[in-house]
Amino acid sequence: MAGHTPPSPDLFFDTTQAYQRTAALRAAIDLDLFTAIGDQARPVPAIAAACKASERGTRILCDYLTIIGFLTKSGDRYQLTPDSAVFLSKASPAYMGGTMEFLASAEVRQHFDDLAATVRRGSMPKEDSTVSDENPVWETFARAMMPMMMMPAQAIAAILGVAAAGPIKVLDIAAGHGIFGIAIGQANPQAEIVAVDWAGVLKVAAENAATMRVGARHTLVAGDAFTVDWGTGYDLALMTNFLHHFDIPTCTTLLTKVAASLNTGGRIAVLEFVPNEDRISPPGSAMFAMQMLGGTPSGDAYTLAELTSMLTAAGFSTVAGHPLQGPQTLVVGTK
Hints:
Helices cover 44% and strands 18% of the residues. The chain has helices spanning 10-16, 19-30, 33-37, 44-51, 55-67, 82-87, 100-103, 106-109, 115-121, 137-160, 179-187, 199-211, 248-261, 283-286, 288-295, 304-314, and strands at 42-43, 71-74, 77-80, 168-173, 191-197, 218-222, 234-240, 262-273, 318-323, 328-334. Strands 6-5-4-7-8-10-9 form a 7-stranded mixed β-sheet, sandwiched between helices. Strands 1-3-2 form a 3-stranded antiparallel β-sheet.
């Protein structure tokens, strides 16, 4: 038939060998190859010398990185793409290479070693999952992921209008690296932040708060978010990248606890990967459900309608979504 595209095995082979893409990127980060190339087009001998690597290995790696879109090539010289220059060169303040320590860690990858068994069960046992009590993977997360969350944290502070809010008391639930609360503290010098997480993780948040000069207004409460007493009288609660680890009834229970700790008119800011109702778009948000299938007992990527239903059931009267740059959405509920 004219114009008919014949079947192709390309997607099958690309997906089967996709692990090589991760390995190549990790190798380039470990070798600091993107920083070595810098802001000039460089030939293999210069790149290899800077990376202390063989010329053969460097050539093949650079060609592969060019094929998958991280470099460009002209003649025998390689150059960074605009994205690589911003996010993968250590010369950039937006460097994100360190996130590989969590995103591609053995602790995260092992949850997909037997995905068929997880699909059969429909769940990951809690003791084997990322939500097991005081799992050390979250300290790795906190140290690795903070640079990636800096821009969203600043965007959230701006959307919430905290700079002009005057004295406010902020609850940062599952604070991790602490950057979301810290960004509010930086935007509003009268904001007091209470960060809740496991004790090991809070060490990282405290270090970041001190480095970013909000340590005097940054208090720590160690423990399980579902059971720890974090007090009352809050004007704002942050729940960033946390609800997706749990099922809807569990999320609603936690949100009800948060609502009880807020003043009348207080707000909750929920950051999540929010797919459309079809659950297959946009790709970056919709595919996150697979991460939750592999790593949690009952987590998911929730639609805006589902998040709105949870927040309403928990006692929030108005709910509004604010798409951010990238795959995430800020959902704000008002008590």
